[in-house]
Amino acid sequence: MSNPYDGLADAGEEKHWAFGTGFTAALSDVDRVVPSSVDRDDLVAYCLMLGDDALVYSQRLAEWCSRAPELEEDVALANIALDLLGQARLLLTRAGEVEGAGRDEDALAYLRDERGFRNVRLVEIDCGPGEGGDFAATIARLLVFSAWRLALFQRLTESVDPVLAAVAAKGVKELAYHRDHAAQWTLRLAGGTAYSRERVIAGLARVWPYVDELFTPHPVETRLAAAVDPATLRSEVDGVLDTVFDAAGLERPDVEQIAPVAGKAGRDGVHTEAMGYLLAEMQHVARSMPGALW
Amino acid sequence: MDLEREFERVVAADHRIEPRDWMPEGYRKTLVRQIAQHAHSEIIGMQPEGDWISRAPSLRRKAILLAKVQDEAGHGLYLYAAAETLGADRDDLTARLVEGRQKYSSIFNYPTLTFADVGVIGWLVDGAAICNQVPLCRTSYGPYARAMIRICKEESFHQRQGYELLMTMMRGTRAQRDMVRDAVDRWWWPALMMFGPPDEESANTERSLAWRIKRHTNDELRQRFVDMSVPQAEKLGVTLPDPKLAWNAERGHYDFGEIDWAEFWRVVKGDGPCNAQRVAHRREAHEDGAWVREAAAAYAAMRERAA
Amino acid sequence: MSGSSWPLYEVFVRGKRGLNHVHVGSLHAPDDEMALRNARDLYTRRNEGVSIWVVRASAITASSPDEKDPFFAPSGDKVYRHPTFYDIPEDVPHL
Prior knowledge:
The structure holds three protein chains of three kinds.
Chain A: H1 14-17, H2 40-62, H3 71-99, H4 105-111, H5 135-156, H6 162-191, H7 194-207, H8 211-214, H9 219-223, H10 234-248, H11 274-288
Helix pairs in contact in A: 2-3, 3-4, 3-6, 5-6, 5-7, 5-10, 6-7, 6-10
Chain B: H1 2-12, H2 25-44, H3 46-50, H4 59-84, H5 90-98, H6 116-136, H7 142-154, H8 156-170, H9 174-193, H10 205-210, H11 218-236, E1 246-248, E2 253-255, H12 261-268, H13 275-288, H14 290-306
Chain C: E1 8-14, E2 21-28, H1 32-43, E3 51-56, H2 68-76
Antiparallel strand pairs in C: 1-2, 1-3
GO biological process, one term (chain B): phenylacetate catabolic process
GO molecular function (chain B): phenylacetyl-CoA 1,2-epoxidase activity
Pfam families (chain B): PaaA_PaaC
């Protein structure tokens, strides 16, 4: 029986409306050979770092779905989560193919244990909705994360690894929009009501302890030829954030940074207590049915 | 009276009534009620599926599901906007929803218990919605018809992704096939109820047909849905949970068993498995967001004063 | 609560270069900048646009059906403005 939509869709327009044919097509014309100057193990680790940042953060942002302050914002936050999920899929796929052990994006997302995840801790903490935070904390994290990742991706467009450079080139446009969205909301919350101002100050204080970690290089990030050393991004990102804070009449939060655990943090696979719950939720269906097809 | 005759002439000629045209008060009220219920259904409908985004077992399924639930927010929004062209107000309609004064499709008062439910909702629930919605692209009120065209176009992937998920799961493990069958058993009858009460008990059908707000009766659409779904179920390799389901060559349609209308009315009246939970979730989101909406409005007002 | 409700905006999208902006729908936003961003998220999330206009619904002045005659009758009789007025043989190409 024919799909009753068929009569509605204009001929040849199918692709325009369809969704879910995969994201890899975006990079289909990119050379996937690893340059000889690039260490393969380090490249795998680096793709996991940047991929896990996006995957875990996307998981957190999607929690807002059906819970945003207004329908328009529900759509906006879902768009950002989808952009990041797309980045994660490209990066995990690259990690799997360079590793050469037969792991695809799903094996990496669903079958690694917590210690194998290399995301920064900023993306895994609970910033709401619910007990862990609220819309202001969510915007504060988005501002910090997107300002940092945009600066990183702008440099990464020059990476000697053609896949990383292509992922970055695609991501730069997305991240610029995310940063703008966060900055717009920061201005409105800071200049809105007394209550919203209080919330955005609290939100920034909630996420600020995780900021130094963003700029603390892991050895892989300093020695891999294809990588960007995050320490080199600090002044640029600080400048961007200060511009937003100045416009919003906010101060940079003055709070202690969260210490590493036994000298290790997110990039080493050492996470906060929130991470186990996040992964349990994300992975349990996939893990409870071995051999299943989805 | 010229106005009324002009209205009737436009409707009878299958042209569209537009927002600033004169229209009978009953037409306006019926439309506002129907469009609002439709909008509420999209918004409440985000919850049962949205609950599985965090647990989707592959990244591709996660992206599809998130995009689909996002679409539902957009569709609710288009429909609220259509209602607003008739003088309704989104805040007021939302208040009616969260206070239980306006209804939404009862299908969303059933729980989603496994990931197969995501597939079955796409296949059967979106399939039933398609049967309802495609004719509405020609409904007599212009803004509603245009919203429906956009919605139907965007939804073209919703049913397919559901059916594709189920086909994939049926090729998977035995446990997955059992999961699909269990989900089909739970959703089939509620999906049939989506078309509303039988024609003889449907209070508004006749007038809505005359005004061309509705284009087909509940029973006509239900029959069309059954006729579409049976061969799809066969292809999928699942048995629909109705022993009376059989091809009737004389009618040229499938016969099917009696719907449990007592259950239908029970769920409509608020006593389904998830009614209270769905409304509470929406109310909480709306109330939790109040300070954000207020802040943005205050900021805009402040800047307008400064300008 | 009514003090916090956001105004209604109408959204116009230019689908591709060379076309007019066309009304695609409405949304609520606290101000113009957010309206533009919301419009992008909502009405071009499948890439259906190259340019967006947003305008507050309250800023639009519309003709009313009661004024229909003086507004629309004059062009109604200038049928030569409509392509179908011209009787062209079927076998003339590209017209």
